[in-house]
Amino acid sequence: DTALRLISPTYYGSNEAMQAAFATIAAAHCRFFVAGRLIDGRFCTLADLNLPIGYEKLFIPIPEHLFRRDISSTELRSRETSDTPNTTNK
């Protein structure tokens, strides 16, 4: 989801703003490590994304065999909340 937003001009307000952001990120020698994600029952990886031309090297795939966790952030937050002890005084 995050990688999809990063390559969406809408996220930046315009394609020009997105290109400028990627130029700044590239100049700072930063990279994005991208793990796959289960979307609508299909495991999607970096190879499934249409990366901006000229900025493909900013994105580094994390191979599925090294990292795959089929759990949503909503489910993680739910688990975290249920694992947190109730500390209110009664």
The total of helices stands at: 4
The helicity comes to 25-40%
Q: Distance between termini?
A: 41 Å
Taken from the alpha-carbon principal axes, the silhouette is globular
Oligomer: single chain
Q: What is the count of structural domains?
A: 1
Strand content is: 5-15%
The string of secondary-structure elements, in order, is: HHHEEEEH
Rg from alpha-carbon coordinates: 17 Å
- Total count of strands: 4
- Spatially, the strands of the biggest sheet line up as 1-4
Q: Explain this structure to me?
A:
The protein is α+β, with helices and mostly antiparallel strands and 90 residues long. The chain has 4 helices and 4 strands. The chain has helices at 2-6, 9-12, 15-27, 73-83, and strands spanning 32-34, 37-39, 42-44, 59-61. A hairpin with a 2-residue loop joins strand 2 (37-39) and strand 3 (42-44). The protein is globular, with a radius of gyration of 17 Å. One of its GO terms (cellular component) is cytoplasm.
Question: What is the element layout, followed by pairings?
Answer:
Elements: H1 2-6, H2 9-12, H3 15-27, E1 32-34, E2 37-39, E3 42-44, E4 59-61, H4 73-83
Parallel strand pairs: 1-4
Antiparallel strand pairs: 2-3
